[in-house]
Predict the 3D structure of the following.
Amino acid sequence: MGRVDGKVALVSGAARGMGAAHARLLVAEGASVVLGDVLDDEGATTAAGIGDRARYAHLDVRSIEDWRRAVATAVDAFGKLDVLVNNAGIIRVGSIEEQPVEDVTAVWDVNQLGVYLGMKAAIPAMRASGGGSIINISSTGGLRGSPFMAAYAASKWAVRGMTKVAALEVGHDGIRVNSVHPGFIDTDLTRAPEFAGVDKAAFTAALPVPRHGVPDDIARMVLFLASDDSAYCTGAEFVVDGGQTCGTVPPGRTEPTAR
C-alpha cells in the first residue's frame, strides 16, 4: 500500500478494461486519478465507484483541446500532474491488400496521434511539478509482426519509437517515459467481432504461462512505472505477455529422457 502516495495521474481510455484497472490500482496505492474517455456514462460511473480521489473528464485522444482540458482537470482538482498513462487504443483487422484506408487512419489517429498529443499536453504540467512518469501502452504488436494487423502494428511500433524520443527529450526535466507491451489480455477490445474466429484457448495453451492475461496484470506494471521504484527506468520496453514473445510451447511436447 502507498506506493504512489500523493501522486496525481491521468489515464486515457479509463472507462473500462485495462484503463479502469490502472485507475483503481493507482488510487488504492495512494494516488489521485483523472479518468479520461469518450464513453462518458461509463467513465463517470467508474470514477464515482473509485471514490473521492477520482474524477472523470471527457477525452477524445485525437483532440489536443480535450487533452489540455483533461490535464487542467488534474491540476485544478488535485494541484499537479505526476503520471500520464496513455492507454486508449483501438484495433482494426485486415490484410494490407484489402483493408480500407479509413480503418488504417482511424487506428493511427487513436493509437499513435493520441499518444503523441497526450505527451504534448502533459509534459508542461509535469515539468512545472518537478518531473513525472509517462507510461505509453504499446503491445507485443509493437515488438513483432502479426498477419492482418499492419495498421495496429504500425501504430504500436510508433508508440515504442516515440517513447524513446520523448525519454531523450525530457529526461533532464525529471520526466521518465517508458512503454508497456501487453500480450493477449482479456478485455472488451480482444472480444471484438474481429476476433470471433480466433481459437483463443489454443493460443493461450501454447504460451509458457498458459492463460490469457487480465487487466490487473498490466495495472501492476503501470503501478511500478508510476512509482519511485522505477526511478532509474526510462526509454525502455516492459513486456507483460505470458512469454508470448519468447516463443510458444509445441503441442504434444514430451519431456526429454533423463540421462
The chain has a mean pLDDT of 93. The helical segments are 17-28, 40-50, 64-78, 101-128, 150-170, 200-205, 215-226. The longest strand covers residues 175-182.
